[in-house]
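notes to self, project folder thing:

trying the whole complex as one job this time. last attempt i did each chain seperately and stitching them together was a nightmare. two parts in total, labels are on each line so i dont mix them up again. if this works i'll redo the older ones the same way
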Amino acid sequence: MGKTRIRNHIRKLRFEHNEMTQQDLAERVGVTRQTINAIELGKYSPSLEVAFKIARVFGKPLEEVFSWPEPGEEEPDDPPGG
Amino acid sequence: MPMSFREKRAWATLIALVFVLILFWLHIPPTRMLAPPPDMWVLHVLLLMIATFVAIQIIVAVVMRIRSPQDAGTPKDEREQLIELKSRAIAWYVFVISSIGGIFVTIHAGANEVGLGFVVLFSFVVAEIVNYSMRIFYYRRGF
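result (full assembly):
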């Protein structure tokens, strides 16, 4: 399966938040660690509810955690999920 | 990536299904399944296999709950629910196609009513094997 087009900065944000582990984030959001891993790697697009919960954990607006690039648009910041 | 609790359960169920299916075939070969004699032997074997499957599932569930009680109590999240739905949808098509196709074939092969029942049961088991195989596939892939 190809990666989703939704990009995210979860990994970077986790490290900026005292190197929060995937397990910590998963517990705070209410999903499994494997789901956080799949979202980070761009393999799974979370529902709006989970996306908002993740953004709330980091204290950021949704669009600073997730983005939807135009076709052909490069994401210089992070790789998908990075 | 380490397996989640539900992926481990899916593996356990898949192995139990295959194990019981092989055990069933060892007792009643497919040729005998088409037109089983009208005795209780076939029914007893069938009930024994179902009981074996249920027993394996209970033992696995208890062992896993003891080993990781926190994971066992965690509700399914949205990704796990979607994986289940996708796998069941595929398994449903497998069940419908294999049971209808199997009935047509076995009628022409001279099956009796019990034999037709076995075809539907066999289709159900195959569909469940597909169901749990797909779950494992999606869990391994991420989604």
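what i see at first glance: Chain B touches chain A at residues 1, 4-5, 7, 74, 77-80, 139, 141-143 (CB under 8 Å).
need to look closer tmrw
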